[in-house]
Amino acid sequence: MVITSFKVLMFPWLAYGHISPNLELAKKLTDRGFSVYLCSTPVNLGFIKNKITAKHADSIHLVELHLPENPELPPRYHTTNGLPPHLMSTLKNALYKAKPNLSKIMEDLNPDLVIYDVVQTWTGKLTSDLNIPAVKFSTSSAAMMAYFCHMLMKRDEKFPYPAIYLSEIDYARARTVGESAKADAEELDPAEERPNRFCDKIVLVKSSKEIEEKYMDYLSEVANWKTMGVGTLFQSPVFGDEDENNELIQWLGTKNECSSVFVSFGSEYFLTKEEMEEVAFGLELSNVNFIWVVRFPAGEKIRPEDALPEGFLERVKGRGKIVEGWAAQAKILAHPSIGGFVCHCGWNSVVESVEFGVPIIAMPMHLDQPLNARLMVELGLAVEVMRNGEGKLEREVIAEVVKDVVVEKFGENARKNMVDVRQRIKQREDEELDEVVQLLNRLCEEKRQNEKSSS
């Protein structure tokens, strides 16, 4: 008798920061016997297809999901990468309107299980209607999930872990995001929120109990979900295959160990001119070596020298490098000359920093980033650049924190903490994933038994 491996359909949100962890989880699942079908738009699949090596080529299959035609949203915008901010709601609604196409994919494939992004709540109803078990997957921290679920379920009570909080300025930004989400939700049928009756309200989280056990437990309690960590799903970089940023690596080679910072705010956040000036002056005042990746919205033809303070590039010549658009982040963070990572605290960047043992200089901007930053501060892995009463960055504060991490004692202690945290995560990773696999196997087996008994 031929044993057929269980088929899993994965359906991430249309952001690289969500798709990459889904791909890494797919690799872990196929290593444990599953066949995985990763469903997204053609532009996103084009981004990840080269990341599937020969080892997984026969077990990870890419499935194209086509969104409805919309002159406002050409196919190149069927992703959040490079998407003009005003089109975000348009993209969310287009994905929702592609539900018939997704339903057809599910009917044709008949997967044993669907793993869908927690952002796309309507997917649970769709899988339920098709009698397919499903579980949610969050690519964010458990602390963030627990905090926002608490705010929804127990808004009159204080969050029980005071290290994790939003300031008034953070709240103002969160409200803006919340209003946008509410507007998006009004377009949906309330029945779409009904949970899938074939699963136990399970959520997989891209994290480990070694760093977030209390937040996973609290999320389970407040949301009535079974919360399970799948590890940090760090994507191991392959160094040496390509020569990206070799000049930068050579330049870092001329600097002392832990003497430099890498500065990047992710691929989907763009600093205002005022923020860029404060960061620039902060780096200048710190007297620390740096590599800074600057980005501008798609379609805006801005030269870095025009966006930066007058004379800045000349004044930092020899100890500062400006890179426009993209840099080999993992390769740079892995370099021994890097002693700190100035970042927005997107969860993927946080995980990467921990992997390479680089202390974080946290400058969260919006969404989950302030909560991720404070989790890292709680763990002794980061220092946050605190904003003033108006919510603005200040150059003197930036300079002080950069020096604290690179020059003073904090950086040394944080690096020791990083090594400890990384080791504990690695030791528990297989155990956590094996627990998840046992559960997924059971859900898949139950579905096949149900089909057999009804045929």
Question: What do you see in this structure?
Answer:
- The structure is a single chain.
- 46% of the residues lie in helices and 14% in strands.
- With 455 residues, the protein is α/β, with parallel strands linked by helices.
- Helix 2 links the parallel strand 2 and strand 3.
- Residues 7-222 form the Glycosyltransferase N-terminal domain.
- Belongs to the UDP-glycosyltransferase family.
- Its EC number is 2.4.1.-.
- Residues 411-446 form a coiled coil.
Q: Any chance you could write out the topology, listing elements then pairs?
A:
Blueprint: E1 7-11, H1 16-31, E2 35-40, H2 42-48, E3 60-64, H3 88-97, H4 99-109, E4 113-117, H5 123-129, E5 134-138, H6 142-153, H7 168-186, E6 202-205, H8 209-223, E7 226-229, H9 246-252, E8 260-264, H10 273-286, E9 289-294, H11 304-307, H12 312-315, E10 320-324, H13 329-333, E11 338-343, H14 347-356, E12 360-362, H15 369-378, E13 382-384, H16 395-406, H17 409-454
Parallel strand pairs: 1-2, 1-4, 2-3, 4-5, 5-6, 6-7, 8-9, 8-11, 9-10, 11-12, 12-13
InterPro entries: Glyco_transf_N, UDP_glucos_trans, UDP_glycos_trans_CS
Enzyme class: transferase
Keywords: Coiled coil, Glycosyltransferase, Signal, Transferase
